[in-house]
Design goal:
With about 190 residues, the chain is mostly helical. The protein has 8 helices and 2 strands; from the N terminus they run ααααββαααα. The protein has a two-stranded antiparallel sheet.
């Protein structure tokens, strides 16, 4: 019972009760707020942006995966991609993160590791594609398409993705407004 309680308090298996209210999320999971602040200090990316990315990518579901292909329309096949966990990081990018940061035991199902990954990835996008660290819209496009895809403007062929990026940016603005009210020090 103690083990289940410990996992729950870390947010390992439960999701926020108020996913659209970052203040409520940080009240429910105090360790997530500490992780968000640590990621901000290390990578210089606003926690509101990182939290909006995780909100969109996984809905704060630690074991989120993309849907499976269907064989013959009914038999579940392979997943559409290797994206997994809170950040929906694909295998190759997650491996690169672990190699470049030295966090060899990092797990996509661990919120602390996931928000650190999102900060790291966005920090790379800032450096590689000269995106402002406050530009959630373009940071999300680079996150989704990869930094190479972003540089080639692959997102222009995906009008639906432009709408998704706009929604993520709007979520980041809402989270930022909430944080300004409940945690002005972040």
């Amino acid at each position: 019972m103690l083990l289940v309680s410990a996992c729950s308090s870390m947010g390992g298996s439960s999701k926020p009760r108020t996913p659209d209210n970052v203040c409520g999320i940080f009240t429910q999971f105090e360790s997530w707020q500490k992780s968000a602040i640590a990621s901000q200090k290390k990578w210089h990316i606003d926690p509101a942006i990182s939290m909006a990315f995780i909100r969109h990518e996984s809905g704060f579901n630690a074991t989120a995966r993309p849907p499976r292909k269907k064989l013959f329309g009914i038999i579940p096949g392979r997943h559409l991609s290797s994206a997994y966990g809170y950040p929906q990081a694909i295998n190759g990018t997650w491996l690169l993160y672990k190699q470049l940061t030295g966090y060899t035991i990092a797990q996509r199902t661990n919120f602390n590791d996931a928000i650190d990954f999102v900060g790291w990835y966005n920090s790379r996008s800032v450096r590689l594609n000269k995106i402002l660290p406050t530009d959630a819209y373009n940071l999300y496009l680079a996150y989704h398409e990869g930094n190479g895809g972003f540089a080639k403007k692959s997102y222009l062929a995906k009008p639906w993705l432009l709408n998704v990026a706009k929604n993520v940016a709007n979520q980041a603005k809402r989270y930022r407004s909430q944080l300004d009210f409940c945690s002005p020090q972040i």
